[in-house]
Specification:
The protein contains 4 helices and 13 strands. The protein is mainly beta. A hairpin with a 6-residue loop joins strand 11 and strand 12. It is globular and about 55 Å long.
Length: about 280
């Protein structure tokens, strides 16, 4: 039986997620795994209270299927950070945090350069990192978040999510992650947002051991029984050896890229700069 790309990708994420910790250590090697685990544990415990949450980036690009013009070319940037409310002294080394992400689409090539849409995404979360037999196994996060574009009238868009996410690092070069949410849709103009912005997501991140080059792929499943996904593919190239700044390529294909046009299909390739968290990014 032949599997489609989407089915194969989801199967890979499931297999890796439930892989025994012992199998993961065989992939990495016991000594390297222990060293890597110690660094992760130290990062979790000693990380600053205020830190980056998701990737922070500034990119510019255009449509993949049309000739570039002022109407289909834009700038997209994202600012995201988190503030720990507690240190890792709760049960299981867990901690509570508040987060804020703002994503903006900016029509810089049009007259007066208007901001097309601003999406505000605050939330509060509780993260549980897991260590098994002295080895880092991953983490689970419970998050309550709100997202809206701050507009009124017919252009108002908003919804809330109670989400559960998890990620596991198999090696320095490989991580898989998944997130599912319970939606609470309060926006009167986006009652059908699940058909476009999705109901769950899964992805993988592959990097060189020194994290100079990073490739990532994320699929967001739109509501419905057919295999309809929003696809985000990214490539990052670290500019300086010890920096967290990267040259960045991002390709988005699907719906729900922003709230105002959540039901409009976009296929955009953009390039720019990204600043990544020292530990690993949230999604």
């Amino acid at each position: 039986m032949k599997l489609s790309f989407s089915k194969s990708f989801i199967l890979l994420v499931i297999l890796v997620w439930f892989m025994p910790v012992e199998s993961k250590s065989q992939i990495l090697g016991v000594d390297n795994q222990r060293e890597f685990t110690d660094s992760l544990r130290e990062e979790l415990i000693n990380a600053p209270f205020f830190t980056l949450f998701k990737d922070n980036y500034f990119v510019v690009g255009t449509s993949m299927h049309h000739r570039p013009s002022r109407t289909n070319s834009d700038v997209k940037f994202q600012i995201s950070f988190a503030q720990r409310v507690t240190k890792t002294t709760l049960p299981g080394n867990s901690f509570i945090f508040i987060m804020y992400t703002q994503k903006t689409l900016w029509n810089v090539f049009q007259e007066s350069m208007p901001m097309r849409d601003l999406n505000f995404n605050p939330g509060i979360g509780w993260t549980f990192p897991f260590f098994s037999k002295g080895r880092y196994a991953g983490k689970l996060t419970f998050l309550i978040e709100h997202e809206s574009n701050g507009r009124d009238g017919e252009e108002s868009r908003s919804w809330n999510k109670i989400s559960f996410s998890g990620s596991t690092i198999i090696d320095r070069w490989l991580m898989v992650h998944a997130k599912v949410w319970i939606p609470i849709i309060d926006g009167m103009n986006n009652k059908d947002i699940l058909r476009y912005a999705g109901i769950y997501q899964a992805g993988t991140v592959i990097s060189t051991p020194d994290r100079k080059f990073i490739w990532s792929l994320m699929l967001t499943k739109r509501a419905g029984w057919n295999l309809n996904f929003n696809v985000t593919a990214e490539f990052s190239w670290r500019i300086w050896k010890k920096s967290n700044q990267y040259f960045f390529l991002q390709y988005y294909n699907g719906y729900g890229e922003n709230l105002l046009d959540y039901n409009v299909f976009h296929s955009r390739l953009r390039a720019g700069i990204v600043i990544k968290p020292n530990f690993f990014s949230e999604f």
